[in-house]
Amino acid sequence: MMKRIALLWNVVKGDARVLWHALRQPERPVWLVPATALVALYALDPFNIAMPLAGVVDDGIIVPLLLHVMVRCLPAHMRRA
After folding, report:
1. How much is the pLDDT for 72?
2. How far apart are the first and last CA of the chain?
3. 41-56 pLDDT tens trace
4. Which residue ranges traverse the bilayer (predicted)?
5. What pLDDT score does 4 carry?
6. What is the pTM of this model?
7. Within 10 Å of residue 70's Cβ, how many Cβ atoms?
8. Which pLDDT does position 33 carry in this prediction?
9. Count of CB atoms within 10 A of residue 46's CB?
10. Three-state DSSP class for 11?
11. Sign of CA pseudo-dihedral 10, 4, 56, 32
12. Residue 8 in contact with residue 63, Cβ under 8 Å?
């Protein structure tokens, strides 16, 4: 179980680095800034306070999945960086 969590964390870190680099590029896709803002708002959703366990599990699955999908939708030259 801990190996899977560590693997997921490494994937999320890598995806976050790629997205951070892509956000700083002037030729970034138009959808990238709003999509990143929506994922950040989803991760900080107040619903997590009302139901802490469900919110953590939810964020642990959906947010990394959304980050990975966003990275996969980036142009190839931005994914390599």
Report:
1. 93
2. 30
3. 887 876 666 666 666 6
4. 50-71
5. 80
6. 0.78
7. 19
8. 95
9. 7
10. helix
11. positive
12. no
Interacting residues of 21 by C-beta distance below 8 A, sequence separation 6+ = 78, 81
Sequence-distant (6+) residues with CB within 8 A of 72 are: 79
Closest among 19, 60, 26 to 43, alpha carbons compared:
60
Q: Over 80: is that where the pLDDT of 81 sits?
A: no
Distance from C-alpha of 15 to C-alpha of 13, rounded to nearest angstrom: 5
Is the distance from CB of 64 to CB of 11 less than 8 angstroms? yes
Amino acid, single-letter form, for residue 43: A
Rounded CA-CA distance 32/39 in Å is 11
User: What residue type is 69 in one-letter code?
Assistant: V
